[in-house]
């Protein structure tokens, strides 16, 4: 999931357009993009759309960001949106392992009520100091958790931390990536609010990729191509990865655990990364499928 495009739950006329676009996922929002007065309306709209839609193109993830667990909307949101066709529920501000497990239990109950046969996964937002401190535990809290997502606005603004302070951004991104990695999960970068600053968005996406992130949120369609560009393996990376995997087979035949490719030492961790790059390139249609 290189790119995830947010769409307000009160704008159903945009749902089909987002599904037809270039983003890897559509994320319909019931939280920040919806005023308190329109929460029930948005919930009903999204629930009805999911019930009628029942699936997206095979390459497209359908995500809904619900309201946080400490709001009066959470349980009703879960019941409304856990429908056939929903792939991932985005959970804002989870604060504890118990909270994640409680959310998972509610999702399971809604699946049974609503005839959902494919388990809905959870994408957890890391956007409070406590969640950042507990990120590794949250990532491993439940089998439904498919990844961690950074929420820098919610994390930084209440603390007076400049959203553009690169040192702070780097520290949080690295901490979240390591926490996700401990659980064997992917990490995803969050929103970049200035939609006029394409260079700033791309630079932050490229930083996230260098820190091992798999994708980034888009709050405007103009950001989708930037995210897809940033999280696509480069031609040079693909070429090197192919040479690594080829050399690995030769090294195995010779009984070598470490060997040189392009003048650089390669052993098991480097091989795993090369294999992941090759698989990503193949999935994106950059290599033959055979």
Describe the structure.
The structure is a single chain. The chain is α/β, with parallel strands linked by helices and 290 residues long. The chain has two domains: 3-230, TIM Barrel (Alpha-Beta Barrel); 235-283, no CATH class. The chain is 47% helix and 16% strand. It has helices spanning 15-20, 39-53, 74-81, 97-114, 129-133, 135-139, 152-156, 166-182, 198-210, 224-230, 235-254, 268-283; strands spanning 3-8, 25-29, 61-65, 88-91, 121-126, 145-150, 186-189, 215-218, 259-261, 264-266. The strands form two sheets. An eight-stranded parallel barrel has the order 1-2-3-4-5-6-7-8, surrounded by four helices. Strands 9-10 form a two-stranded antiparallel ribbon. The radius of gyration is 20 Å and the shape is globular. The two termini are 23 Å apart. The model has no long low-confidence stretch (mean pLDDT 94).
Give the DSSP E fraction (strand runs of 2 or more residues): 15-25%
Q: Please provide the ordered H/E string of secondary-structure elements.
A: EHEHEHEHEHHEHHEHEHHEEH
Domain unit count: 2
What is the overall shape? Answer: globular
Helix content: 40-55%
The CATH superfamily label of the largest domain reads Phosphoenolpyruvate-binding domains
Average pLDDT over all residues: 94
Number of strands: 10
Class of the largest domain, according to the CATH hierarchy?
Alpha Beta
Oligomer: single chain
């Amino acid at each position: 999931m290189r790119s995830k495009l947010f769409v307000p739950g009160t704008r159903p006329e945009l749902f089909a357009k987002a599904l037809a676009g270039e983003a890897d996922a559509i994320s319909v929002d019931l939280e920040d993009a919806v005023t308190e007065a329109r929460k029930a309306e948005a919930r009903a709209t999204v629930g009805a759309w999911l019930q009628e839609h029942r699936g997206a193109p095979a390459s497209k993830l359908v995500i809904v960001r619900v309201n946080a667990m400490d709001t009066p909307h959470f349980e009703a949101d879960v019941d409304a949106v856990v429908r056939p066709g929903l792939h991932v529920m985005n959970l804002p501000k989870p604060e504890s392992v118990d909270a994640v497990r409680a959310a998972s239990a509610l999702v399971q109950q809604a699946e049974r009520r609503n005839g959902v046969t494919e388990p809905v996964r959870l994408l957890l937002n890391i956007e409070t100091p406590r969640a950042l401190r507990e990120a590794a535990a949250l990532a491993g809290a439940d089998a439904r958790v498919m990844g961690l997502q950074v929420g820098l606005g919610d994390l930084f603004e209440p603390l007076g931390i400049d959203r553009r302070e690169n040192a702070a951004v780097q520290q949080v991104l690295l901490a979240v990536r390591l926490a996700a990695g401990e659980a064997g999960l992917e990490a995803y970068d969050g929103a970049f609010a200035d939609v006029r600053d394409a260079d700033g968005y791309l630079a932050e996406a490229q930083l996230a990729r260098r820190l091992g992130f798999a994708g980034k949120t888009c709050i405007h369609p103009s950001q989708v191509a930037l995210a897809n560009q940033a999280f696509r393996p480069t031609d040079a990376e693909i070429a090197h990865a192919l040479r690594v995997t080829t050399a690995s087979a030769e090294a195995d035949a010779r009984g070598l655990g470490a060997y040189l490719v392009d003048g650089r030492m390669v052993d098991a961790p480097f091989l795993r990364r090369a294999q992941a790059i090759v698989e990503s390139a193949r999935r994106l249609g950059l290599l033959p499928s055979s």
